[in-house]
Design goal:
With 67 residues, the chain is mainly α. The chain has one domain. 52% of the residues lie in helices and 9% in strands. The chain contains 2 helices and 2 strands, in the order H-H-E-E. It has a two-stranded antiparallel sheet with strand order 1-2. Strand 1 (50-52) and strand 2 (56-58) form a beta hairpin. Helix 1 packs antiparallel against helix 2 (27-44). The protein starts with 6 loop residues before the first helix and ends in a 9-residue tail after the last strand.
Length: 67
């Protein structure tokens, strides 16, 4: 299954990585790993998350803190 991000979601991911890396070097990679984990879970369980329209689902990430 192909994973796609809505353009707004993709921009938010990029902005979040930049924010985390601007605060303390390193957490951006952990954030990317959490995004990848959720994508993998959604591939294994395609019905997970909130349905948005006919072909999309919204999945929230685990809370993420800067150490």
């Amino acid at each position: 299954m192909k994973a796609e991000f809505h353009q707004v979601a993709f921009e938010e991911i990029v902005e979040t990585i930049a924010y985390y890396e601007g605060e303390v070097p390193g957490p951006g990679a952990s954030f990317i790993a959490e995004v990848e984990r959720v994508v993998d879970v959604s591939r294994d369980q395609p019905s997970i998350g909130q349905r948005v329209g006919e072909e999309f689902r919204r999945i929230l990430l685990a809370k993420f803190y800067i150490p």
